[in-house]
Design brief:
With 253 residues, the protein is of the alpha+beta class. It has five helices and seven strands. The N and C termini lie far apart (150 Å).
Amino acid sequence: MENVAKCPKCGAGRTPGDTECPVCGVIYAKAVGRVAQKPMPKIEPVPNKEDSQPLLAPCAACGKNVSKNAVACPHCGEPVEKSVNPEDVQRDETISSANSESVNSKKESKNVGCGTLILAAIVVVGGIYFHMNDTPKTPSSSSQSTSKGKINQSSYSEEEKNGQVTAACHAEVEKFLKSPSSAKFPWRFEVYKIKDHENMYQNKSYVDSQNGFGAMLRTNYVCEVELLESDIKDKFKYRITYLDLDGKIMISR
């Protein structure tokens, strides 16, 4: 394949013997001379900052040249002080400032997050509180009983009544003993419901206690208790109507 000459300016086909281009009109001799005479751009090497700086510096102690990279002077042993580059110092300060700003921004975002959580918790608790207060309350059975009237002792079982009557008699008997703290009542007790009286009960038993000389003596007693209506549920209310200690009547109502 033959090489076809082309115009150095527009690239059009060139016929042998032509002195100028039929397309763009450029004269071949002048165009070829300008291309040949056009100088190439000169590339200059970029100077290295480290190369431009001297590697040797006089020792502060003996004055002899010492490498800047050396730790100590090889001639006298004096430690070599490293020169500080202002650009390096500025770069380090910039990096430190950026890091501190990043830490501060993280702390601020963390504080904002904690504050948001606390505010949300307060809103939730407040909503629950107001919801509970707005909810209509249904009166309980105890309040209904109180509003209708006093609570009758018939709501207690007989076993509960016997226990309460016995405790009431023990407390009343101890008031007449020389040494109430030494009183010892038996585990077994007898409680009778007095006929023709719905809320009247009688307790017959004994108690061992110390007399004025410290000797243990036994005292037989008969105690009668009247159960009263109470304004408060599960609160035992009574009245001692009769108390006999070894045949001596202490209370009679």
